[in-house]
UniProtKB/TrEMBL annotation, chain A:
This is Zinc-finger. It comes from Micromonospora avicenniae. It comes from the Bacteria.
TrEMBL record, chain B:
One of its GO terms (molecular function) is DNA-binding transcription factor activity. NCBIfam families: sigma70-ECF. SUPFAM superfamilies: Sigma2 domain of RNA polymerase sigma factors, Sigma3 and sigma4 domains of RNA polymerase sigma factors. Transmembrane segments: none annotated. One of its GO terms (biological process) is DNA-templated transcription initiation. This is RNA polymerase sigma-70 factor, ECF subfamily. It comes from the Bacteria. It comes from Micromonospora avicenniae.
Amino acid sequence: MNGLSALDRFLHTDPEDVGCGQAMELLHLYAELAATNAEAAAERYRGVAAHLRDCGPCKEDLEGLLAAMTEPRP
Amino acid sequence: MAVVRVRYVMPADPTTLDDGLDASSRLDPESAEWVRALTGSGAEREAAVVRLHELLLRVARGEVRRRSGLLRVDGPELDDLAHQAAADALLAITSKIGQFRGESRFSTWAYKFVIFEVSSKIGRHFWRRPQVPLEAEDWERLPDRFGLDPARESEWRELITALRRAVETELTDRQRQVFVEIVLNGVPLDALVARLGSNRNAVYKIMFDARRKLRTALAAHGYPHVNTSEQR
């Protein structure tokens, strides 16, 4: 990605983006579906998926949650 | 300390949280056991709380390790952060156990709390590092933030100048402050949330509106690199 497309990507806003509040509320449901079928999760929770594409902190939380779910328990 | 107060209404997600089923009828056995023990009393509840804390601490430790590259801390300080996150998550979970509706496994729901606590504590930890003055608006940083090649400055200089003008003329004071701190100063969103005494949703919304305004302003001035279509 060149710099101009990075700037364009940064300025782009998705009208389906539900924001952090709703994404955080649904994140455990999204994660459980995404753990087995990422595409199904993005389709079932379109607004959350739109948000996760643009919000680094929420995306980081999803990755942390997925890591916790897949880590073997003692 | 400034507090951001924004009434934030994003478009609703097409999904709903409540499908009308009774929560107790859909709990998997492990989740049902957690709920039963944590909503009980006496020694059995205390034992469940201890087990849950151990689980949360393990997840918190894993998460701070996963993010340790961003923290520039290690050893006891990392472990202390994990302990704080696990303790606060435990309090949140035990106080909100009545809100668990069995739509996921209990463990996934519980892990979410500790992941959020780790994020929040990492955001606060940011300010314990040496900082550049936050009010400095160094626009020379902007090209680097977006990976713009200095050798091709003639291609982007005019756009960056227009962007700066739009930041100064189109944004509210609060939007400009958030733009400067996140984009120019490189402050992580959760760190800015901690500094403003706000929440992630409110600060994200401020930045969301700022991005939309800037895009509209640049497109109105005919900058070809700013695609006006909403869909990608």
